Amino acid sequence: MTTPTTPVRRTDRSRAVPDAPDRGAPGGFAGATASEWTKLWSVRAPWLCLLAGLAITGVFTYYYASIARINEHPVQPVGNAAASSAVLVQFAVVVLATVAVTSEYSTGSVRASLLSVPQRHRVQAAKALVAAVVAFVAGTTFAVVGTAVAWVAFDGRASFGAGPTLLQVLAVGLYQALVAVLTVGVAFAARHPAGTLSILVTLLWALPSVLLGLGGPTLADVNDHLPHGAGDHFMRLGAEAPYGPATAVLIVAAWAATAHLIGLYVLRRRDA
């Protein structure tokens, strides 16, 4: 006696439907950027850097405008106070961007980041973009607050124009964004917070101070081609400059791009 068998329906593999992608987890550069954004705000350091930058802006611009009023300096655009504060405020951005990179090396979590996003250039570009966006928004916010504080402290010894003031606010934001990209590149090359900060303090503050302190046209020309020297030329209105604002922006951008390429070379060469 034979037992009836149930016919087995063969599955046509050619018609198999692939697993639907997880639309909640974007891939590619968008996914890498979203991941870097989440990691940046998962610690307290960025918030502290932004608060420090805001406090430094308020104190510096009030002091700058008060000195100009007391010493009866010539009337100048009110936004110059906020632009001048960038010499100190930029280090709040430097620390923020440094932490975004070196914290992963100190904890070893950079290995997980490189495993999830094997394209090294994508990891670095995502960090640079996130740091630049945060720095631009922070820089423009600092400039608005600094301009408002300085206007009160100038007490009539400053001029205000909506167009020029807006231009200076955006220029400060752009400079801070370029500083953030520069910092990310240096941080990937140095891989250590102390080394990164040492390089950037020297490049953005110590070296310009020495060059300007020694004086002379040759040293002044060298300073004009350093990041902050060039940045100061397109942030401040009415200041004498050997080149135009567009050239100044390109000089700072060239420094940022060079640091970015050096950092990418080290990342690919030494990996995690």
Descriptive notes:
This protein is an all-alpha fold and 272 residues long. The chain has one domain (29-270). The chain has ten helices and two strands; from the N terminus they run ααβαααβααααα. The protein has a two-stranded parallel sheet. α3 (79-107) packs antiparallel against α5, α3 (79-107) packs parallel to α6 and α9 (227-235) packs antiparallel against α10 (245-270). The longest helix is centred in the middle third of the chain and has 35 residues, at 120-154. It starts with 27 loop residues before the first helix and ends with a helix. 39% of the residues are buried.
Give the topology, please.
Layout: H1 28-40, H2 45-70, E1 76-77, H3 79-107, H4 110-116, H5 120-154, E2 158-159, H6 162-190, H7 193-214, H8 217-224, H9 227-235, H10 245-270
Parallel strand pairs: 1-2
Helix pairs in contact: 1-5, 2-3, 2-5, 3-5, 3-6, 3-7, 5-6, 5-10, 6-7, 6-9, 6-10, 7-8, 9-10
Low-confidence stretches: 8-25
Strands, count: 2
Rg calc? 25 Å
Strand content: under 5%
Helix content: over 70%
Biggest sheet features:
2 strands, parallel
| Annotation field: number of helices | 10
Q: Strand sequence of the main sheet, in spatial order?
A: 1-2
Helix/strand order: HHEHHHEHHHHH
Looking at how many chains there are and whether they match, the oligomeric state comes to single chain
The total tally of domains equals 1
SSE-based structural type: mainly alpha
Distance between the termini: 69 Å
What is the arithmetic mean of pLDDT?
Answer: 87
Shape: globular
